[in-house]
Amino acid sequence: MNKFKNFLNSEIELIFQEIVSIRRHIHQNPELSFAEFQTADLIRQYLKKNSIQFEIVSQTGTIGFIGSGSPCVALRADIDALPIKEETDLEFSSKVEGVMHACGHDMHTAILLGTATVLKKLEPKITGTVKLIFQPGEEKLPGGAIKLINEGVLDAPKPDFVFGQHVDPEKEAGIISISEGTILASADELYITLTGKQSHAAQPHLGNDLILAASSLIINLQSIVSRNRNPLLPGVLSITAINGGSATNILPAKVEIMGTLRSFDQTWRKNALNLIETYIKNISNIYNCNCNFNPALGYPPLNNDFKAVQHIRKIAIDYLGAKKVQLFEPKMWAEDFAYYSQKVPSAFWFLGVKPKETKQIIPLHNSHFSPDEEAIKTGIAIMTLSAYEYLRTKD
Q1: 174: alpha, beta or left? (left if phi > 0; alpha if psi -120 to 50)
Q2: Which of 125, 155, 334, 340 has the fewest beta carbons closer than 10 A?
Q3: Is 56 exposed, middle or buried (0-12, 13-18, 19+ CB in 10 A)?
Q4: Domain 186-293, what fold?
């Protein structure tokens, strides 16, 4: 491992500045889900320059190929940005008003491009195929993963494993965190509309007080988790927006409510959605108003396969040392990588990106999010090893 580690480190150093430049270009030119046309073009031009064959899928998706035949390992990076106005004051801040790579997908894309470069040099020593999945639309339902799967990204050849990683601002740059089992939650979007008769605020008896109805509904919805779910099962129901009314003396004719439901358990997820609908109907009857519940079913829970996790843990410990490879508690985040984990044994891990000189944690989806680019080196190394150590020609 030491000899190969020296080779790997040397190769990563050779391309590091170029990969950082690519990351910064992507960061400056962020594109929203399913509209990542410039990003896709950059990816394809880079693969072409490095003689890596690729296919175009779902317009802005790109699948690169190194090697041929079976066995096969797939490596995935998401490429889309978020509708957030950047406030980092970096020299390479977003040039697109109201759009930002606040979830690190620019890092993911750059790391996989760097990984592709190293693996291409190792191609003669690889038995089988590495699939490089540059996936659009992770941040927006229905998610790019399911679209690519439906278009055959996991076919011909079918991967033995799918591997992916995500930046983690809570851990210092260079730390890998990985655990087996269900690690991320399902995520369903909740859209509730209450409608009724508008009236003067001084005469609430002549109309429907939808503000009161909405308030009662929000409070009662919390008992779905606290009083209907096994306390040992993770679950979150959060109301995140309530919109209605326009003046101090008018009771509105419509109130809109939005929220999210998170769960690790598919049976509880289904039951909770049914309970939400029942609560909405009952509250509406109490306040004599009309209701509409329109949930948008999101990503399923993400499950890390035992063998896949053991493979990643071994190569990460061999490369980084045991102190830099950690377990982590499951998170109530959601990721459409979960769709791959439903079809193929998969492992999804977190790459620490918190700058070592700071104690402050700037979370994901924050306008000040700025990962430490030194973590790119670790990201490339672990992604490269994840495929190479499984597919390399045995001496």
Answers
A1: left
A2: 155
A3: exposed
A4: Alpha-Beta Plaits (3.30.70)
